[in-house]
User: What shape does this take?
Amino acid sequence: MATPAIDVQNLTKSYGTVLAVDNISFQVQPGELVGFLGPNGAGKSTSMRILTTWQPASSGYARLAGFDVMYESMEVRQRIGYLPENVPVYPEMRVREYLTYRAKLKGVERHGRTARIDYCLEKCRIKEVQNRLLATLSKGYRQRVGLADAMLAKPPILILDEPTSGLDPVQINETLNTIKELGGQHTVLLSTHILGEVEKVCERVIIINKGRIKFDETMKGIAAREPSHVIEVRGPNAAVTRFLQDQQELTSVVAKSTDGDLTTFELKTKDPNKDLREELAKRVLAHGWGVRRLDLRRVSLDDLFDAVVKQSDISVPVPAVPPPVEPSPTPAA
Ligand SMILES: Nc1ncnc2c1ncn2[C@@H]1O[C@H](COP(=O)(O)OP(=O)(O)O)[C@@H](O)[C@H]1O
Ligand SMILES: [Mg+2]
Assistant: This one.
């Protein structure tokens, strides 16, 4: 199998008593576009700072393009583009001048440098501000300068920390489209706390909360999850619950909410492809109870995120990770 673009094993980071990243493990394969999703304070930026060699882990290790972030940090830096949470820019520099400086620093060859800068200015839609002082740019423009900077040297791996923060809705869409295009040529790990962004561009989502990975699945996998029946019944709660539990075709009955004698249940069926709506409605009505709603519903990323973040009752898988491999003890020359 190809070397993973990103290989994280049992990574932990604490700041004093705050456990910001708590024993996380995951891998990203070359060419994947992965969303790193989590609420504020989940540990996204801390993880990304470790992956990009800007901060040491407390324990565990990470390899990017096969190189250890701790022992081979220069090798790692040559292969990544990083858009940090707060883009560090030099206020007295002009956009084009800054990118030229960064391109030189990153060893972008003289031949083709101008063309590459033009390409990045174009892609990140900042050509019109190329001669503006960085100090005068809005947060949205600064963010896009940061993205242009990250992609300048055509690194195989892009680590983008909230690339759309500070942008207006139109800019968000443009930036997401740019990232989607980049996904074809680079491995991309992008963090966000906005679900819709992941749904729009990512092929896979890793959800992190309170420093821990709670969920890791492809968007295809999520779409292929079994649908559930959702039924809202008016009737004595206990009797309705018992009745539903007695239905042979059902494997699980979970009351999601109750309002007086009105209860919403989520039901799982033995045969996930069977649509039981009409049959169930008939049986419930035969008891003299009312059916206010009856849907066949697919699990959405929204449901999963809620379940993970609020720890409610939808089960979410965390895939098994391979056993840890000893990191290379030899520092890079
Ligand atoms: N430099 C730091 N010193 C102390 N605590 C920190 C520092 N950076 C982050 N934290 C804490 O670590 C946790 C994770 O933060 P962070 O990685 O920034 O989360 P996210 O990017 O997901 O919002 C938070 O509780 C935050 O307060
Ligand atoms: Mg952050």
